């Protein structure tokens, strides 16, 4: 029952027009019709649907039940669903699941313990485990093609997802958590090892970039360090300058 309550809660929160409208407007500006995009950590499909509405060809990646089941039956048929997680190699892994707050379920070892001590997570309980299949970004690209954009929102497992990518892609976004800044600094290190990226954040679900220009890794790190642990989380976008 708690699992289905968690699904219902997510549908109420994330399929709210107050969230979906700004996302659709944002992706219409960011993407071009026909772009191939990967939605890694698709959850209830809010962003997958918004990217599809912008004309993109969407591959949605979601390992967690019952969300993968919900997506299988509810996503438009032209959205490709991959019922797996992404990581550094193909394997089977154990996910720490919060039944009532499933958006913070994670494959990252120690994430639940670290997040439980961070502001904003005091009410969350990770109360069960789920075995999930893991593949890699490289495998996904080999099967579907090189994406124009990859959205990654996997609760602390972003670095592991990027460890399964051997060549840069034009545009990515990763969730950043001000209460856990070291994770985002490690992600920046990994991206800069892949290629010459510049960065721009989106705070919360604002649907617009914080900066008028794209900034280098050093400036981005300073901005992250300036954030209060209580600040809103958001998405950090990385654009390959060569593209």
Q: Unreliable runs, pLDDT <50, ≥5 residues?
A: none
Number of domain units: 1
C-alpha geometry: globular
Describe the strand arrangement of the main beta sheet, using strand numbers: 3-2-1-7-8-10-9
How far apart the termini lie comes to 47 Å
Characterise this structure.
By secondary structure, the chain is α/β, with parallel strands linked by helices. It is built from 9 helices and 10 strands. The strands form 2 sheets. A 7-stranded mixed beta sheet has the order 3-2-1-7-8-10-9, sandwiched between helices. Strands 4-6-5 form a 3-stranded mixed beta sheet. Helix 4 links the parallel strand 2 and strand 3. Helix 8 (181-194) packs antiparallel against helix 9. The radius of gyration is 17 Å and the shape is globular. The mean pLDDT is 88.
What structural keywords apply?
243 residues, alpha/beta, Rossmann fold, seven-stranded mixed β-sheet, three-stranded mixed β-sheet, 10 strands, 36% helix
Which secondary structure elements does this structure contain, and how are they paired or packed?
Layout: H1 2-14, H2 17-30, E1 36-40, H3 46-53, E2 57-61, H4 67-74, E3 80-82, E4 85-86, E5 91-97, H5 111-116, E6 128-135, H6 137-144, E7 149-152, H7 158-163, E8 171-176, H8 181-194, E9 197-203, H9 217-226, E10 234-240
Parallel strand pairs: 1-2, 1-7, 2-3, 4-6, 7-8
Antiparallel strand pairs: 5-6, 8-10, 9-10
Helix pairs in contact: 2-3, 8-9
């Amino acid at each position: 029952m708690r699992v289905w309550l968690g699904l219902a809660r997510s549908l109420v929160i994330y399929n709210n027009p107050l969230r979906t409208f700004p996302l659709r407007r944002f992706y219409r500006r960011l993407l071009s019709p026909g772009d191939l995009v990967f939605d890694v950590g698709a959850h209830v499909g809010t962003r997958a649907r918004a990217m599809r509405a912008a004309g993109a060809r969407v591959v949605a990646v979601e390992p967690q039940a019952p969300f993968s089941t919900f997506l299988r039956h509810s996503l438009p048929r032209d959205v490709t669903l991959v019922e797996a997680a992404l990581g550094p190699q193909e394997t089977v892994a154990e996910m720490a699941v919060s039944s009532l707050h499933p958006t913070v379920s994670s494959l990252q070892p120690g994430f639940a313990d670290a997040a439980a001590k961070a502001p904003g997570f005091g009410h969350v309980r990770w109360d069960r485990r789920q075995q999930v299949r893991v593949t890699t970004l490289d495998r996904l690209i080999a099967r579907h093609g090189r994406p124009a954009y990859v959205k990654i929102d996997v609760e602390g497992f972003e670095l592991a997802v990027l460890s399964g990518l051997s060549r840069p892609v034009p545009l990515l976004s990763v969730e950043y958590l001000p209460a856990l800044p070291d994770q985002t600094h490690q992600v920046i290190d990994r991206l800069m090892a892949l290629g010459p990226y510049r960065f721009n954040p989106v705070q919360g679900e604002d649907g617009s970039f914080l900066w008028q220009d794209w900034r280098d890794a050093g400036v981005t790190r300073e901005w992250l360090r300036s954030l209060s642990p209580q600040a809103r989380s958001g998405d950090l976008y990385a654009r390959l300058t060569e593209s």
